[in-house]
Design goal:
The chain is mainly α and about 150 residues long. It has four helices and no strands. This is Cell division protein FtsL.
């Protein structure tokens, strides 16, 4: 048996040297695994966060849409009410503008009456229009200038 011990293929010193690098590679591999695990955990945690962010943004948009719809319905309700008021005012205006209504109020409130035959004055027009046209044109121009000046004040 002595012979078998001496012929050993692997010396004890060589085995010790080889074992040390194996431990180092295992540690490096363990560190890589830890880094890979932390990256995997980070991605696993980030996916629900992204989904949560998307869900919250969708809910925010639906809330905005609902608020705008409520504002539209309120504005439509106001529009209908204003159209009713407009129709009432147009009806009142038509009643006020009618000539029969104006004549009645002139007689009752202001005490006005239609003119009698003695109150009517008829104006005659002369046949000499050429002389009057020249006089009237100068007079008209002076009146226009005077009316423009008075309108300024």
């Amino acid at each position: 048996m002595l012979v078998a011990k001496e012929l050993s293929y692997y010396p004890t010193e060589a085995l010790e040297v080889k074992e040390k690098p194996r431990k180092k590679t295992r540690r490096v591999q363990e560190k890589k695994k830890k880094k890979n695990n932390s990256l995997a955990k980070l991605t696993i945690m980030s996916i629900p966060m992204v989904i949560l962010g998307i869900a919250l943004s969708i809910l925010f948009r639906y809330a905005n849409i609902t608020a705008v719809r409520q504002e539209i319905t309120n504005l439509e309700r106001q529009k209908v009410e204003l159209e009713k008021v407009k129709l009432d005012l147009v009806a009142d205006l038509e009643g006020i503008k009618s000539s029969v209504k104006i004549a009645e109020e002139a007689v009752t409130k202001l005490g006005m009456n239609y003119p009698t035959e003695g109150q009517i004055v008829y104006v005659s027009i002369n046949e000499n229009k050429a002389e009057h046209v020249e006089k009237n044109s100068i007079g008209k121009q002076i009146r226009k200038v005077f009316s423009m000046v008075t309108n300024l004040f």
